[in-house]
Write a structure and sequence with these properties.
Number of strands: 0
Largest sheet: none
Strand content: under 5%
Distance between the termini: 42 Å
Number of domains: 1
Structural class: mainly alpha
Length: about 425
């Protein structure tokens, strides 16, 4: 058995038996270094290098900003905006949940955080109106995954750092597929709710310009956050890291002085939550050395030879990679998935003419499906806890919504120009 086969087997066994991923990667890396007689100092050096980039600060800052905006009352204002836009009729609360998640996604950058922020309000509201707990949890989990696609997205930031791709370009590329999937989620939510007769009353307040305008005005501070954050990035006023810092100060100002829902206790809780979430970044340490070893073993070339022996068609290759990512996402955390496999598949798709920006958005879309598949399924766990039901029940409820994300993947593969239009228009086409 070759050294590479031994390392892969050890990593696979450790992952399957439930070893923490950072330990599995670290042990496999140490074993590989021993087998090829490279000093273990490479692991320490690579770990330091991996955690050194200044843009990494963007992720904990956006997590903190999103949490402060959630506990500071912004999520409630966004829900009111979504309600005024959708109107009130049978099945409308599911659509309100989708729209509210889309709006909050522009604040949080995280799928599970978006699910928690909107689901904590909308799941009880839907249950009071006669929606089944399974549907309420499913629509919250599915729409919450938009937090990882619509910018600012933590997963797009990680991909940008790992692949050395422009983060502003990735953010812009996330809009088209993000809005496209939002439209599909709205359609699925409406159809499922109507077919199952969910909702307490057919009659209610319909959409009206006046009501919508008043809700927009009442929620102007919440709606202003993504305008300031994204507008500052694209105008060149500040970098993504600086934008994250601005978002934190904006959330503190609005929470304390405008909505007056923040307190010192809530800020401390938000800092604790941020520390726990940011702790996942430690995966970058052993993964950097692991990635260097894949290059040493020429894994990208081996994968390229394997896939090209099956097909040289770009669309079929992307479909195969997508299927692999979705399978891996059922048991691997999305952050680790991006860190470990970008170095393997990106050279292959680039050789076929796929833009790295498109592949980044494609990768994150597959991660969103991973949020909705057990046993890991971060969004499923959050939604199930909020609804007080088993994760198995939510897993069944999300099946129609997963179809929306699969169609979104096909949309990007078949029509890449739609995804790349905005970044190419703003920054010019890559050469």
């Amino acid at each position: 058995m070759s050294d590479l086969a031994i390392v892969c087997a050890v990593f696979a066994v450790l992952t399957i038996v439930g070893t923490p991923l950072i330990a599995a990667i670290g042990i496999a890396t140490v074993l590989a270094l021993h087998l090829i007689d490279i000093p273990f100092t490479l692991l320490a050096q690579s770990s330091f290098t991996a955690l050194q980039p200044f843009p990494l600060l963007t992720i904990p800052l956006f997590v903190l900003a999103g949490r402060l905006m959630e506990v500071g009352g912004m999520s409630e204002r966004l829900i009111e905006v979504a309600k005024s836009f959708v109107g009130n009729y049978r099945g409308s609360l599911g659509m309100v949940t989708v729209l509210a998640c889309m709006l909050f996604a522009a604040l949080s950058g995280s799928g599970p955080a978006t699910t928690a922020a909107i689901g904590s309000v909308m799941i009880p509201a839907m249950r009071r109106e006669g929606y089944s707990p399974r549907f309420a949890a499913a629509v919250s989990a599915s729409a919450g995954a938009l937090g990882s696609m619509i910018p600012p997205s933590n997963l797009l930031i990680i991909y940008g750092l790992v692949s050395e791709t422009s983060i502003p370009r990735l953010f812009l590329a996330g809009f088209a597929p993000g809005f496209f999937v939002t439209g599909l989620l709205l359609l699925v939510s409406y159809v499922v709710a109507r077919r199952n007769n969910f909702g307490g009353s057919v009659e209610g307040t319909r959409f009206a310009i006046g009501l919508c305008a008043r809700a927009f005005w009442a929620g102007k501070w919440a709606l202003g956050a993504p305008i300031i954050i994204l507008g500052g990035i694209y105008s060149g006023a500040f970098t993504p890291t600086e934008a994250a810092s601005v978002a934190v100060f904006y959330a503190l100002f609005v929470g304390f002085f405008v909505y007056r829902k923040l307190s010192v206790t809530k800020v401390v809780e938000a800092l604790r939550f941020t520390a726990l979430m940011a702790g996942l970044l430690i995966l970058l340490a052993p993964a950097q050395a692991f990635g260097q070893l894949t290059a040493y073993y020429d894994v990208p070339t081996a994968v390229q030879d394997l896939l090209t022996s099956v097909t040289s068609n770009r669309i079929l290759t992307m479909l195969l990679i997508g299927a692999f990512y979705i399978l891996i996402g059922t048991f691997m955390e999305s952050l680790a998935q991006i860190i470990l496999f970008t170095a393997v598949f990106l050279p292959l798709v680039k050789s076929m003419g796929v833009d790295p920006v498109l592949f980044g958005v494609f990768t994150v879309m597959t991660c969103e499906i991973g949020f909705l598949t057990p046993p890991v399924g971060a969004n499923l766990n959050v939604a199930a806890r909020l609804a007080g039901i088993r994760i198995e029940d939510v897993s069944i409820g999300v099946l129609p919504f997963i179809l929306a994300y699969v169609v979104g993947l096909l949309f990007m593969i078949v029509w890449p120009e739609a995804t790349l239009f905005l970044p190419n228009w703003v920054y010019g086409a890559t050469r």
